[in-house]
Amino acid sequence: MVIITIDLQCITKRFGNYVAIDGVDLRIAEGELVALLGPSGSGKTTLLRIIAGLEVPDTGTVLLGGEDALQRHMRHRQVGFVFQHYSLFRHMTVFANVAFGLRVRPRRQRPSEAEIAERVHRLLHLVQLDELADHYPSQLSGGQRQRTALARSLAIEPRILLLDEPFGALDAKVRKELRRWLRRLHETMRITSVFVTHDQEEALELADRIVLMNQGRIEQVGAPAEVYRAPASPFVSEFLGDINRIECLIEGGQVYVTGGGAPLGSVPAGYSGAAVIYVRPHDIELMPVTFPADGGGTVRYLHEVGPIVRAEVDYAGALLDVVLPESEQTERPLRVGNGVDVRIRRGFVFPKGAGKQAEPMRLAPYRGGGPRAIAGPPLGLS
To answer: Cβ(186)–Cβ(193) under 8 Å?
Structure first.
């Protein structure tokens, strides 16, 4: 099986006045598993269809293995495509569905029936469907149908594999099982693969790299841990995982809640003015106190969810979502109505009104010092 690169250069695609893809550049390495992640309408499925040849860009270049794919019909690109809703032939058995792409090849390119049978049985073993070869799609579970669709795509020995919301039609438990299974399959085959998803957990668990898209453009590209821990824009911060958005003010490198109180932390000197802190629920520490310091809060809600405790804290008139490990609740138990000091372990600060190109500033935790009154409206959260 030939493994190739994918190069997208300045891709633009419009549908009437609507710009679906706006000047996208992206390189996908050999054997890489990449997730196109974003909200509905962000352009991720359109980009996938352009790679497959199902759509033609208005401008730009698509290189598959260094060759100009726009000069080749989609049937000659050797692309395997897995759709969300399986698209299996209901009147065909599992074996016949997987063999279909081989049997419809021109006679000169068609393998013998013995070769087809050998390849199909090998794939059915790979996707763990050996015993279901004679079953029909109506006799399969959703997960089994999706594995059949994947085997059918692999039967033609594609140079790249494209998957459009491959687990979107499945329930949560089956999705998790298939995600782990697909990751193991990819590690075995190492075929260059791109999948579209709006499921953040799916992208973080499966992908070697995440391409986060918004309004037809790429907001950030990186390894899952990099994109999650070091968001490049407010959009990435808010889209990828749960987040608290805290209105603040920066003076002299210190970050204050706009309602006043002790600093929440510090950032490198150089910017003063209004800003927004983005902080994840598990990066907030709550210290139970009898009389919270200026800027402290009050616990309004507690709920144990397996190994974690979710808390809502009234903080200067708004609610912070906080996630605590169960052990912390055992060592320093909180109760609804308790006063707490709020400490931020890690967060990112974006200047307000600085545009999409503003560089994020990493928030250093506050190490002590007196409170300081800051004029302005109370803390805002959205």
So the answer is: yes
**How do residues 243-282 score in pLDDT, each as one tens digit?**
999 888 888 888 887 766 677 888 887 788 899 999 999 9
What is the tens place of the pLDDT at every residue in 28-51?
A: 999 999 999 999 999 999 999 999
Cα gap 73→52, rounded to integer Å: 10
Distance between CA atoms of residues 360 and 11, nearest Å: 27
Among left, alpha and beta (phi > 0; psi -120 to 50; other), residue 96 is alpha
Structure tokens at 255: 């970050």
**Residue count of the chain:** 382
Edge to edge, the sheet with strand 217-222 lists: 79-82, 160-164, 192-197, 33-37, 209-214, 217-222
CA 145 to chain centre: 24
Question: Identity (one letter) of the amino acid at 307?
Answer: P
Q: How far apart are CA 215 and CA 161, in angstroms?
A: 25
pTM to 2 decimals? Answer: 0.83
